Amino acid sequence: MGSFGTNISSTTSFSLTGFPEMEGLQHSLAALLLLLYAISILGNILILFIIKEEQSLHQPMYYFLSLLSVNDLGVSFSTLPTVLAALCFHAPDIAFDACLTQMFFIHFFSWTESGILLAMSFDRYVAICNPLRYSSVLTDIRVAHMGISIIIRSFCMVFPLPFLLKRLPFCKANVLTHSYCLHPDLIHLPCGDTTINSMYGLFIVISAFGVDSVLILLSYVLILHSILAIASQEERLKTLNTCVSHICAVLIFYVPMVSVSMVHRFGKHAPEYMHKFMSLVYLFVPPMLNPIIYSIKTKEIRKRLYKMFLKPNL
């Protein structure tokens, strides 16, 4: 037991790595990441502001979009401190508990995003398959309950991860692959048995992301069935167009997420920069693209942006 305690207390910090293989391009990479952060943060704040100010957007679909924007801001702010420290200020060290806290929030927001996308697919299913019952099914109170349930589910799933790591002795090199703390990266460092950590991580991936993605796919099978039953081709395209933003949001979240999971678990012989690149795509692309997609595809948001930036006197 004394040895166990010594091993844990000896690891007071981790060292985060950026892209040492791109040493000559560190400043360009830092500038690119800062630009992505700026687009993500400003874009999502704009979405929240427009939904708050535009009375016509006070509907369930846009309440879920607001929750998605808040969640994307959470993703950006979770990674921002260590990415700035490692790439801009050359201060890669992070305290043990701070690293576990960052890991918790990164994964918490990831699980929450999956739940929000599932709720948004349910919104599209009700709007297209049962339009006459839309207002009675998706009441404000029910939307609030769905949002709270998504947050509670994510918290309960991610909460054990830091404690499962803290019970292990960290006596190997404390260098992490990324500029932020991720669970798949951290479980490679302990010299104890990490079987429980790996199994629990796989369990919550399957029970959350797996179930959510299957239910989203099922909802779109039902939506497509309803759309094909519409006689007019013009009406079919118009109805399908209401789902395009959500379909894009699902793809830009799940494709990188599945890729990261596969690379970490089965791509052990892949170059290290491949792991880093996939994680960057997973954490940076959805928060940046979601507000852009919804701004382009949502007429009310597009009109408000036009008034704000192109015709400020209107």
- Which class of secondary structure composition applies to the elements? mainly alpha
The biggest sheet amounts to:
3 strands, mixed
Arithmetic mean pLDDT:
85
N- and C-termini, Cα separation: 71 Å
Give the strand content: under 5%
Q: Fill in the CATH topology.
A: Rhopdopsin 7-helix transmembrane proteins
The CATH H-level superfamily is Rhodopsin 7-helix transmembrane proteins
Task: Give me the count of strands.
Answer: 3
N-to-C series of helices and strands: HEHHEHHHHEHHHHHH
C-alpha geometry? globular
GO cellular component, one term: plasma membrane
Protein name: Olfactory receptor
Family: Belongs to the G-protein coupled receptor 1 family.
Transmembrane segments: 29-51, 63-92, 104-122, 143-165, 202-228, 240-257, 277-296
Short description:
The chain is mostly helical and 314 residues long.
Main attributes?
314 residues, 13 helices, Rhopdopsin 7-helix transmembrane proteins, globular, mainly alpha, 3% strand
Walk me through the structure.
This protein is mainly α and 314 residues long. It has one domain (25-302): Rhopdopsin 7-helix transmembrane proteins (Up-down Bundle), CATH 1.20.1070.10. It is built from 13 helices and 3 strands. It has a 3-stranded mixed sheet. It is globular and about 65 Å long. Mean pLDDT is 85; it is low at 1-9. Belongs to the G-protein coupled receptor 1 family. GO terms for molecular function: G protein-coupled receptor activity; olfactory receptor activity. Its main location: membrane.
